[in-house]
Design brief:
Strand content: 5-15%
Structural class: alpha+beta
Length: about 1200
Amino acid sequence: MYLKKLELQGFKSFPEYTLVEFDKGMTAVVGPNGSGKSNVTDAIRWVLGEQSVKSLRGGKMEDVIFNGTQSRKAMNYAEVSITFDNSDHFLDYEFDEIQITRRLYRSGESEYQINHVNCRLKDITRLFLDTGLGKDGYSIIGQGRVDEILSTKSEDRRRVIEEASGIVKYKVRKEEAERKLRSTEQNLLRIDDLLGQLSERIEPLKQQSEDAIKYHKAYDELKTKDISLLIHKINNANSQMGNQGEYKSQLEADIKVQEDLLLKIRSDNMDVTNKLNSIEDEIEMKRQELSDISEEIFETKSEGKLALQSLEHLKDSQKAYEDEKSELLSQIKISEENILEKQAKADELLTKAQEEESLGNKIKASIDELEEEYRSKAEINEDTKEKLDSNTQELLTYKNQINHYETKISSLDDKINELSISRVTNNDLLSDVKKQLADSDEVFKNAMKEEASIHSDIATRKEKLEAIKAKESKLLSSYEQKNNKFTTIKTRINTLIELEKRKEGYQESVRRLVNYANDNSLSKKIVGILGDLISVDEKYEIAIEIALGNAIHNVVTHTEQEASDLIDVLKRERLGRVTFLPIENIKSRDIDKETENKASIVDGYIDIASNLVSCDSSLNDIISNLLGRIIICDDLDNARKIAKKISYGSRIITLSGDAINPGGSLTGGSVRKNGAGILGRSREIEELKRENEQIERDLALLEVERQEIDEESNDIKVEIAKLEEFLKYYSVERAKAETTYNNLKKRLDEINTQCKEIELNLEQYSKEKLSCEEDLEETRTVLSEVEDNLASLRESINNNAQEFEDYNNKISKLRDEVSEHTTSAQRFIAERNGVLSIIDVHKETIKNLEQSISRKDLDNEENNKQVELLNKKVSDFEAMLKDLSKRYDEKNKEVALVIESKSKLDEEISSFADRLTSCSDRLNSLRNELNNLVNKYERYILEIDTCKNSLWENYETTFDNVKDSDLYIKLKDSDVASINRDIAKLRSEIKAIGPVNHNSIAEYKEVSEKYEFMSSQRDDIYKAKQDLEKVISDLIEEMRSQFISHFEIINNNFKTVFEDLFNGGTAEILLGDDDVLSCDIEIKAQPPGKKLQNLTLLSGGERCLTAIALLFAILQLRPSPFVVLDEVEAALDDVNVSRFTDFVRRYCARSQFIIVTHRKGTMEACDRMYGVTMQERGISKILSMRLGE
């Protein structure tokens, strides 16, 4: 077997389709750094199933897809295919050529294929187990894998040795067996839980099942007896109603005669009453006229008296007017004399006030001049005092400042000396800490980088694991729900099919006829039962069933003759009564368009019932005849609106089954429904079958998905465990480095802070000292000037004191004189104001008196006119009184004549009352008899309705269905009491049983069978667990035996190859003291001239050559068909490169070598060479060359 070719497209830097063909022998892949030559090695690892993004030198798996350049768009997928020649059937596969393909889309979806057939990653991994190939094999050594072979971690070394020793397939089988064992144990726990749950349910279900059987037995007997009693009551009521029909007709005729007689008496009485009412109206009218005349007489007399009183009052007012006018003129004359006297006195007082005010103003001017002069001198004196106080205060302040500056300068000199010494010490310490911090930071960053990478890998896997667990939990829950639903639906389907088969729900006579017809070859004469021949949308089923009523049980035939023949069969075989619908007879009967148009505009209108039914076209006339005049609407409120709109001319039915009948009667109430009715039964069966088929497919998919999830979960757990071991090591390293770094950083910060503080303090103290010295000198100069000013100011203040005292005395005397003149002027003004007020009062009085005289003159003129009018009015009133008295006497005579006519009519009405009473009593007696008879009828009808309702409510059947069925036993009146006792007893028994689980019989049977089945399964699973434990034990023994034998061979080969490669020296592989399958593996090497030592102490070239020695030692034991080496000899010198290529040549006969290299010696030794270049930035191209041609 060997590698024939590698095909790439969209992988990393190879966007275009690239073909790399390989020959046997040595093939080199060369190119400058960054050209993409290592991407060839990555492609081989990736297509063979590599899942570690880190191993592929990426951050996430999508990084392997070509990401585009400035001139080229990114691709949406990456695809790599690798082809092997398997003619020697090295791989256990039937084909001579094997092609492995892997494809990844940017959306995250991926595909795997073997020879163009889709497969799983696990299939590819299993194909290469224990071959040295595959993602974990020793045949592909990429960049950095040399260190992995000689890793400080025993796990890495063990993985390589186990692959070489050929025990990986056993290990995988052992892990699979352990996974199956864990799964088996989980299944065992689940079955134990289920068995526990079932065992808890069996006993209660057994008791419930027994109770249900008792209940059904008692209920069936109760149903038969109760139905028989109800039918007996209905028949009795119908019989009684028929016997009393003739008597009712006779009563109704007698009542009609009496009602006619009563109407005639009332009519005659009405004529007389109308005449009497007319006379009474006339009497009332004449009395009203008489009353009106009396009222006029009274009003005329009252108005005449008022006119005479007003005339006398006006004459008295004219006499008083002359006296009042003389008095008012006298008062006006006195007020005018007082005004002249007071005006002269007011002018005299004004002159005196003005003289006093003039004297006061002259004295005020003198005071203002003195005060101005005084203020000027006082301001000068105050300024002098303020300056004296200020200079005294300044003197003290400057003396204190001088003392303060001298003390502060001395203190600052001491601080500056101390800080200079501290600065030199801290600078030396700072240099040492910075060096230590840089070393610690480097260690910390390396540890963090490794830890972050491992954390990322673990987090990714844990997230994936959590998602898988959640998915598994959801999957199990979904499986259980769907399984339960599947069982429930299956039971329901069987029940509905059985009901459909037995024609349950149809009248007994219809069922008998159909069964008889099927058994006696008469089925050709029956088209079908109407309910079976039509289909309706689910939401209209109730409305259409109510609309059809008993017509749903009608049997459809082609012709009238067929219906007649079937009626003969019913009579002959005594099968009951059935209604037939011959297609040739029944004609369409549609609602008129005007009614339909009126109904359609009302909210809630749905359609005519016949339009909502689907059926064969031959049945259209029948459907139209039965449903063509029935309107369907959404609810009762809208039905009432439609009924009013069409004047209650058609039947209207709501979706819930309520109906408004022609004429306005309403039918409605609850509609008892347990599942679909007759119309919906077939639909429900088909829907349930489709639903169960889908559930069955879902259950199969869920089981497959659950198995895949289990496998994926176990793989991730193994990867997480390995990563956590790495994480522990790097966590410890990182913690040590972090602690050291933090301590040094803290110390560095402290030293930097101290140095900054020292520099700031030095600068601050130097500035403060210089400032203090300058301030001290300036303060001493100012102090001398202040002392000179103080002496001059004290002398000026003493000279001004006597001059201020003389000014104050003069101003005080002049102010007293001004006050006296001002008081006199104010007194004269006040007196004058009082005199002027009195003058104004007199003027106002004169004005008021003159206005009063004018008003009285006008009033007097008006009174004269009123007197003339009143004299005329009194004369008119006297004439009117004479006329009214004459009219009153005439009306009195007319009223007496009309009253006499009324008395005669009253006597006639009295005789009518006696005749009317006699007739009414006879009519009431007849009506009472009729009401009693009607009440009996209503009681019989109520009893019939109650019994029929009981049949429907309790047993979902009708009187027509059961009156001829086996459920009805004919009773005698003497049997009724006994049947009632039996019914009461049966109801007591049912009540004593209590709540009944009707499904318990089937549940008990199902749970018992399930318990037995699961007990059997538990035994099988327990046996499988024991078998798995034995398989795991056998695999461990086989692995241990093969590992030990192969390890010894590899160790011996390693010693030999090491000695050949190094021209001497020795090396060995050592196992730890624990179990060989889990113990540590250590490699010791001793190059020529050195001591035996650990690999970590070797140089880079020595480590590289040692790893190569181990690789060739493994190839001697288990030659790999091909080996890919990616720059493994990069650390070797030319001499060792030559030894390396010689060894590779030696093994070329058994293995094919593909080497990615930079070394000239390696290139020279190869048979074929591929060059990788980047003609365009970011895009790799491959050129091939066969050497020696």
